[in-house]
Amino acid sequence: MAYDLVVIGSGPGGYVCAVKAAQLGLKVAVVEKRATYGGTCLNIGCIPSKALLHASEMYSHAAHGMDALGIEGLTPKLNLMKMLAHKDATVKSNVDGVAFLFKKNKIDGIQGTGKVLGAGKVGVTSDKGEEQVLETKAIVIATGSDVAGIPGVKVDIDETVIVSSTGAIALEKVPENLIVVGGGVIGLELGSVWMRLGSKVTVVEYLDTILGGMDGEVSKQFQRMLAKQGMDIRVGAKVTGVEKTKSGAKVTFEPVKGGEATTIEADVVLIATGRRPYTDGLGLAEAGVALDSRGRVEIDGHFQTNVAGIYAIGDVVRGPMLAHKAEDEGVALAEILAGQAGHVNYDVIPSVVYTQPEVASVGKTEEELKAAGTAYKVGKFPFSANGRARAMLATDGFVKILSDKETDRVLGGHIVGFGAGEMIHEITVLMEFGGSAEDLARTCHAHPTMSEAVKEAALGAFFKPIHM
Ligand SMILES: Cc1cc2nc3c(=O)[nH]c(=O)nc-3n(C[C@H](O)[C@H](O)[C@H](O)COP(=O)(O)OP(=O)(O)OC[C@H]3O[C@@H](n4cnc5c(N)ncnc54)[C@H](O)[C@@H]3O)c2cc1C
Fold it and tell me: Can you tell me which residues bind FAD (predicted)?
């Protein structure tokens, strides 16, 4: 059987590319080495972490957040195994959903490890050691990413005491103390989960700020909010050692600027220092497929590698390691392979940190606009001045809109606050259509909603907010 397209990897990049290509009439196979489809995101990433974030947030709310609303006397009892079962059930329904989509779209799902044998040929070795070669017009590499270690430090991740995110979503006991190495999205999300369930959490971050790359004002305020919740955050700290002890593990770090080293101990250490593109065993060197200096598969503007007929998308190529970026690349590539015009607008990719409050951002940060010498206007509106936020006791945070000083076109939007991850999309759609702060400010928003703060921030960038 010859295919139009063989996709290696069934994460958000691979499975979405396969479904779209099949919808456009191509004959498609997907090779996946895991027992279930859905990749990192559905199995051990986005989906299980959000199940735990939601459940732990409900727990913490029931324990601490209801008195002021007149709901007293709640003393929730944690059943961690049941919470983990909820997470596992959520994963199962999502990965089963991908299997259903493959069936519906007549996509051949093939269990096994794929290897690129050259343009037009993919070798597959199943778990049982059976081998086959698939013939295809096009190959899509969508093999994603894997946990990166700490540069220059040997760390023995055993997924019970020293864990990656994979172990951190499956701990069967709430650690008394948890050290998180890395103050990025994954570290702060999973640190929040265990902090809400009772752990004393210490975050050790190399940079001067958590959430490096986010708008500076946003990350500063957010750091204060997490500290208020009880997270001990040490920034500007270089980790030089992570070792197991009799009772847990210890982490040694020193100020990046130089100075004395500190060692702290915990029962669990989470290594959340980022992810690396995953191309192990794919045979790319033998097939002549070029990687860049950071180990990512090099592609052109149409996702094609240096070898004709071999393409790559998702975490394994340049750009933010986000599921929706991988999905959009999958759709665009399927369209290109079907003879249509596929395109991804990399200037308008939202990103969300699913903590409480949430942090969401799209487009440029103020620091990026300054560095590029762009003349810009800023509109800001705090949730403390929003009626719905007051009613919900969700007044922490603000909306910030950045627009071009000359044209008023919105260049970036940043939100810290309850529901930020949903609200960011109105700014995203506006930016996709090249809208201005005035457009956003003149769009009628239902009252009372948190989203009115977005409108008010836009009013602030365009002229003046009303309610401040
Ligand atoms: C804890 C955590 C939380 C996250 N939360 C979010 C979030 O909330 N939002 C978000 O946007 N992103 C999140 N991410 C990132 C997101 O998971 C990735 O950006 C996304 O999964 C990338 O999709 P992908 O298709 O490129 O690769 P992956 O999802 O990594 O899928 C690659 C697949 O390829 C398979 N594979 C690899 N090599 C082979 C081979 N040789 N043969 C066969 N199969 C192979 C792998 O088994 C895997 O299933 C999170 C990540 C983690 C770890």
Answer: 50, 114, 143-145, 315, 321-324
How far apart, in whole angstroms, are the C-alpha atoms of residue 409 and residue 406? 8
The residue whose CB lies within 8 Å of the most ligand 1 atoms, and thus the one to mutate among 41, 95, 322, is 41
Taking CA atoms only, the protein residue closest to ligand 1 atom 48 is 39
Question: Among 273, 290, 325, where does a domain finish?
Answer: 273
pLDDT of 65 higher than 90: no
Same-domain pairing of 400 and 289: no
Is-contact 181 269, C-beta < 8 A? yes
The yes-or-no verdict on residue 64 having pLDDT over 90 is: no
Same domain, 166 and 141: no
- pTM, 2 dp: 0.97
Q: Is residue 314 part of a domain?
A: yes
Judged by DSSP in three states, 298 sits in coil
Let me know whether 26 and 117 are in one domain: yes
Q: Is residue 105 pLDDT above 90, yes or no?
A: yes
Nearest CA to ligand 1 atom 52: 45
What is the rounded CA–CA span in Å between residue 308 and residue 163?
Answer: 40
Answer whether 282 contacts ligand 1 (Cβ < 6 A): yes
179 and 77, same structural domain?
no
Kindly give the distance from the C-alpha atom of residue 142 to the centroid of ligand 1, in angstroms, as a whole number: 9
Active-site residue flag, 86: no
Alpha-carbon gap, residue 395 to 225, rounded angstroms: 12
> Does the beta carbon of 12 sit less than 6 angstroms from any atom of ligand 1?
yes
Residue 382, in any domain of the structure: yes
Q: Which mutation among 46, 163, 270, 359 tests ligand 1's pocket best, with the greatest number of atoms within 8 A of CB?
A: 46
pLDDT of residue 1: 58
For residue 204, with 0-12 CB atoms within 10 Å meaning exposed, 13-18 middle and 19 or more buried, which class applies? buried
Question: Can you give the CATH number for the domain in which 195 is found?
Answer: 3.50.50.60
Domain shared by 24 and 134, yes or no? yes
Q: Which domain holds residue 383?
A: 351-462
